[in-house]
Write a structure and sequence with these properties.
The complex is a heterodimer of chains A (85) and B (407). Chain A has 85 residues and is mainly alpha-helical. In chain A, 56% of the residues lie in helices and 9% in strands. Chain B is α/β, with parallel strands linked by helices. Chain B folds into 4 domains: 95 residues, Nucleic acid-binding proteins (OB fold (Dihydrolipoamide Acetyltransferase, E2P), Beta Barrel); 153 residues, Response regulator (Rossmann fold, 3-Layer(aba) Sandwich), CATH 3.40.50.2300; 83 residues, no CATH class; 45 residues, no CATH class. Classes of the chains: A mainly alpha (85), B alpha/beta (407). At the A-B interface, helix 2, helix 3 and strand 1 of A face helix 4, strand 7, helix 5 and helix 9 of B.
Chain lengths: 85, 407
């Protein structure tokens, strides 16, 4: 199993919905880099393409969130929503 | 009645005199600023400081009580040019008048702040805490941003408005702290530690809006510097004063000139990401297309290489075959010769058994290829040829049908 395949599996193991914007964008960069390599198998390249399209869609969904969540950490260690006038 | 002008009319006690003078001085002279050179500076364990300021002709005794001296960033050095502000008073016990100093400001650039700053800076430098090698890289797309600042200040509002504009998917965790005045440094340090303890922020902005060097002083204190350099989470220092660098700026992983600039530095701009993402499907498709094209080219290349290598390999094979063929032919000849001899031998035996006589009577003998006599139906295989020996020669025959009869 090649290194990138391992990485891919590791990625797939993680709950896909939990991936952050950063992870998705980084993964997209990895996918583009991988596709540029000579030893990429046809099957793998198709898989990478599909995965990439999925990350684009999910990243756009994250970007569509418009409400900045502002919370205050209280001295007790509790967190409460913060209202700013 | 004694009217002698040299005789005392009213006798004062020493205390009464000093007390009266003290009132006189205190009531008649407003707060004043005096410029001079510091001499005989002495700080007592109580925190009270005694010193004098002097010019080339005179000297003025000064006292600075602990409640004011505690705010000094550092003790002035003897010989330093300062301005002091305070009120004239009288130390009644000694009958000595003095200036009760509330503030000391240095004349010129090499001020008290500067002394304290340089001292702490060189200490942290010696510990390697200012090295660029200990700077932690900032995450590119933090999910959670921590902020340590006053919850009342404009700095917080500035940071939040920038985060909201650029990266509204971010979660902001604010830990309020007073950013100036007594105890501010400890509050800031504690707030940083509290945020780090939650383990949630991926980057922390520590700062406040602009102000005088005194207002910003908390960010030059060791306790804040230590909290920043101990933080396992990258810290961006944003003390709104573009000209002067604070110790926090030096220790932090990144220095931003203002809180807004810090917010811009910690999150990417949604618009940029959207632009990059919009182009991504096309880039992916292009990359995939390139893979397919590369494979096609690789296949062609492999085929042409295969053709070439086949030629190279077939040539020696042919030579080998030529050689082997000769050997094979020789071998076949030998085998044939052996067969012939074998047949002749069988003939001899047949003669010995005198079957030829029987043959002459019209019988024939079926023989296998190896000369063995075929005596039973079981010796024959349908479709196979065999030999029939008759009186005057041999006939090659083929088995077309087999029928088992009674013995």
């Amino acid at each position: 199993m090649s290194k990138s395949q391992e990485a891919q599996r590791e990625f797939a193991d993680k709950d896909d919905a939990a991936l952050s914007l950063e992870e998705r964008l980084r993964r997209l960069e990895e996918i583009l880099l991988r596709l540029e390599q000579d030893d990429v198998a046809l099957e793998e390249s198709l898989g990478l393409f599909e995965e990439g399209v999925g990350h684009v869609r999910d990243a756009e969904r994250i970007l569509a969130q418009t409400e900045l969540r502002v919370e205050e950490l209280l001295s007790k260690g509790d967190v409460q929503d913060m209202e700013l006038d | 009645m004694d009217s002698n002008p040299h005789s005392p009319g009213q006798i004062w006690s020493v205390s009464e005199v000093n007390s009266a003078i003290r009132r006189l001085i205190e009531d008649s002279v407003d707060t004043l600023w005096v410029r001079g050179e510091v001499g005989n500076w002495k700080r007592y364990p109580s925190g009270h400081c005694y010193f004098s300021i002097k010019d080339d002709r005179s000297e003025l005794r000064c006292v600075m009580f602990a409640r004011d001296a505690g705010f000094l960033p550092s003790d002035p050095e003897n010989g330093m040019e300062v301005r002091v502000s305070g009120n004239l008073t009288l130390y009644e016990k000694k009958g000595a008048y003095q200036l009760s100093v509330r503030r000391i400001e240095s004349e010129g650039a090499e001020g008290l702040w500067r002394i304290a700053f340089e001292k702490l800076k060189s200490q942290l430098e010696a510990e390697g805490l200012l090295d660029s090698s200990v700077k932690k890289p900032l995450p590119r797309y933090p999910r959670v941003v921590g902020i340590v600042t006053s919850t009342e200040g404009a700095a917080l509002r500035d940071v939040i408005s920038v985060l909201d504009r650029r990266a509204p998917w971010t979660r902001v965790l604010v830990r309020g702290a007073r950013v100036q005045g007594d105890g501010a440094a400890n509050e800031i340090a504690k707030a940083i530690e509290d945020l780090v303890a939650t383990g949630e922020p991926e980057v922390i902005i520590v700062g406040r809006g602009g102000g005088s060097i005194e207002d910003l002083w908390a960010f030059n204190e060791e306790v804040v510097a230590r909290a920043i350099s101990r933080s396992t989470i990258p810290v961006v220092s944003a003390v709104g004063h573009e000209i002067d660098v604070t110790i926090s700026d030096l220790v932090a992983d990144l220095r931003a000139p203002t809180p807004s600039a810090a917010a811009e530095a910690v999150v990417p701009d949604a618009a940029d990401i959207r632009g990059g993402l919009a182009d991504m499907p096309r880039q992916l498709a292009k990359a995939l297309q390139a893979v397919l094209e590369r494979r096609e080219a690789a296949t062609e290349h492999a085929l042409s290489r295969l053709g070439l290598s086949m030629e190279r390999r077939v040539e020696p094979l042919q030579q080998l075959l030529d050689h082997d063929l000769e050997r094979l032919q020789t071998k076949l000849r030998i085998i044939l010769d052996e067969r012939t001899h074998h047949l002749i031998a069988i003939e001899g035996r047949l003669d010995a058994l005198s079957p030829l006589a029987t043959l002459r009577r019209g019988y024939s003998v079926a023989l296998k290829g190896d000369g063995q006599i075929m005596k039973s139906v079981r010796d024959f295989i349908k479709g196979q040829s065999f030999m029939l020996r008759v009186r005057d020669g041999e006939v090659t025959a083929e088995v077309t049908e087999l029928q088992v009869g009674e013995e």
